[in-house]
């Protein structure tokens, strides 16, 4: 155990986040490392606020001495103009999920893409990346698209209910990965029929957004399916995919590894990955939503 330090404060800004496991993961790891670490939820829904209030919320965190903030739906792109600096990968993605608050500066990072890549490679180490379809072109979608292309995907087709968002993300990724084929998918049935993998990167399937992001009959046994939603861990999409013979990767890997990266950035300490994975598994198996906001 390290010597006890001064209190560190961090938080998560997002909508409908009361059941997030992020505070529990951060605070348990802090406790294991001898740090008095308080991690709070700043729920837009609970406080009856919206993305336009983001600047005031970040300023409030700075005033309270927070060392950092995690940013989730629907603020991962809205946060960009409020930052003083941004990491290279976050700049490429056009989305930030982690902000270090230090010396009057707001420095944006993205630990989502690395978290997704780690989760996918651990759960499906031999996933065929030759032809991937992605549903969702928002902040999470930017991270997952970047991740699969970094992992070597040769073809990525992006679908979103907003075609302009899909085109914007596809164009962005095509610039960063000119060796790959990055396109916009307008017909899911056509592209999924010959795809090797499906990445789901929208809130559909979360407790507050139940349902399926596509008709179940489009899933086929030659397809692996990767999810970003982790509460519930077994979404309707993953259930349907298993029933149709697909190999699946749940959103837990992304949840844990993005937290691993954020913990390191906030505290300057090296987290114990195995310990954080075991803690996450224990929380999900027990049906725990989150720990009280005390260290």
UniProtKB/TrEMBL annotation:
Residues 12-99 form the Shikimate dehydrogenase substrate binding N-terminal domain. It comes from the Bacteria. One of its GO terms (biological process) is amino acid biosynthetic process. Keywords: Amino-acid biosynthesis, Aromatic amino acid biosynthesis, Oxidoreductase. It holds the Pfam family Shikimate_dh_N. One of its GO terms (molecular function) is NADP binding. One of its GO terms (cellular component) is cytosol. This is Shikimate 5-dehydrogenase. It comes from Agrobacterium albertimagni AOL15.
């Amino acid at each position: 155990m390290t010597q006890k330090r001064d209190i560190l404060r961090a938080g998560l800004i997002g909508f409908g986040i009361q059941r997030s496991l992020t505070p529990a993961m951060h605070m348990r790891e802090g406790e294991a490392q001898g740090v008095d670490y308080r991690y709070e939820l700043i729920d837009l829904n609970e406080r009856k606020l919206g993305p336009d209030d983001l600047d005031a919320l970040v300023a409030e965190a700075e005033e309270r001495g927070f060392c950092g903030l995690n940013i989730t739906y629907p603020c991962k792109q809205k946060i960009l103009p409020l930052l003083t600096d941004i990491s290279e990968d976050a700049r490429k993605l056009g989305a930030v999920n982690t902000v270090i608050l230090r010396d009057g500066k707001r420095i944006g990072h993205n630990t989502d893409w690395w978290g997704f890549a780690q989760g996918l490679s651990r759960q499906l180490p031999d996933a065929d990346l030759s032809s991937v379809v992605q549903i969702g072109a928002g902040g999470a979608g930017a991270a997952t698209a970047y991740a699969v292309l970094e992992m070597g995907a040769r073809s990525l087709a992006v679908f979103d209910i907003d075609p302009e968002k899909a085109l914007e993300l596809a164009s962005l990724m095509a610039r960063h990965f000119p060796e790959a084929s990055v396109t916009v998918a307008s017909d899911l049935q056509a592209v999924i029929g010959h795809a090797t993998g499906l990445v789901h990167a929208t809130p559909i399937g979360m407790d507050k957004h139940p349902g399926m992001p596509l008709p179940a009959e489009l899933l086929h046994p030659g397809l692996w399916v990767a999810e970003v939603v982790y509460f519930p861990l077994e979404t309707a999409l993953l259930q349907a995919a298993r029933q149709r013979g697909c190999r699946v990767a749940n959103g837990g890997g992304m949840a844990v590894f993005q937290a691993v990266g954020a913990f390191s950035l906030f505290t300057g300490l090296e987290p114990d990955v195995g310990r954080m994975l075991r803690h996450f598994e224990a929380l999900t198996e027990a049906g725990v939503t989150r720990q009280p906001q005390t260290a």
